[in-house]
Amino acid sequence: xxxxxxxxxxxxxxxxxxxxxxxxxxxxxxxxxxxxxxxxxxxxxxxxxxxxxxxxxxxxxxxxxxxxxxxxxxxxxxxxxxxxxxxxxxxxxxxxxxxxxxxxxxxxxxxxxxxxxxxxxxxxxxxxxxxxxxxxxxxxxxxxxxxxx
Length: 149
Hints:
It contains four helices and no strands. By secondary structure, the chain is mostly helical. α1 runs antiparallel to α2 and α3 packs antiparallel against α4 (122-144). The chain starts with 9 loop residues before the first helix and ends in a 5-residue tail after the last helix.
């Protein structure tokens, strides 16, 4: 005899997804900052520092606000996200670019899943997806065309 599968309330499922996304944007932000600190070209360096700030503040705040709306406590710091000064420094610039690219793809995928579950809040996920695509494009450009300095 099969036991009935217990359904997880949508708020709990969404909260879990949002917490995972917060961890991902915090991690991506750490890598963007590290990349920015490694690049000597002022324009490109500032672009990656800006990406880091957008991930660390804008996206994290958007996701935390939604987390509060579903009745959960916001995350000040995601427990499994790396400390930018400890974790990222062990990567080469190319390695950090590859990981940042991976996180941009991951955040896009996670946001699309959240959008399906959170049907009335498409605009917040659309904004994050749009930004992540911009980051992904910039990362690919740096990977494909490293600048000679």
